[in-house]
Input
Amino acid sequence: MTTAIAERKNGNVVKDEQPKIIYTPRIDIVEHENAFDVWLDMPGVAADAVDITLEKNILTVSGAVAPSAPEGFRLVHREYRPGVFRRALRLSRGIDTGNIAATMKHGVLQLTLPKAVDAQPRQITVTVEEESIDASD
Amino acid sequence: MWRTQPSLLNEFARLNREMDRLFVSMTQPTMTSFPPINIWLRDDEIVATGMLPGIDADALHIQLENNTLTISGTRAAPTFEGARTVRRERTLGEFERKFHLPFRVDAEQVKATFTDGILTITLPRLAQDMPRKIEVKTA
Output
């Protein structure tokens, strides 16, 4: 399907404002014998703009999208807006939280969550926090 | 027997939430097309920006034919031996988007950059089609 882009000369141009939209990054989780691998799609977020915090057993990932609006142009077709990516993961006991590794490449954050050596393998889980996170700030 | 019931209810609740999530993502047009693209316009140039996380530049194809811009490519799915998939939400595999542009562009001058998963394509207008100011001379 081809999307026709009209050259709207006057009015009706979409505004690219409201930078406070919170996106839930899409996530993949894979379990290996000794670790979990987690990927989060966060396009437009630079490596130094990613924030990862661990509070108790909740790992929260966030990052603001760098603005990509070219100067002096009119936005005539919009399928995404600037915003902030944010998502939380609940880690069970048995995750070695001292050795979590994170890398950012091409707008994808990859986390490696190693399992603690002495933990019971069957009890270790990484689950997505389903309840909405406070987005008031 | 009684013990299994709460977990079954939990499972239904989870399925419900999952259905809600699917429904919401289907009603948002921005989520149905991958990759999402914004198009920007100036009298002499078009800029297309897109969210293409995790895609290598050499797995991406940008084509221009009869004023139609085609962005296509493949997003490879990582494969592992003996690993278990816990959750899978990301769009993987082949994709293609087509846009009919509002004016003719100079295919030789099209440039594309890729930064942090954001693709930016600049398409300058064909020189002979540029809007010109016509001087009015006094007789």
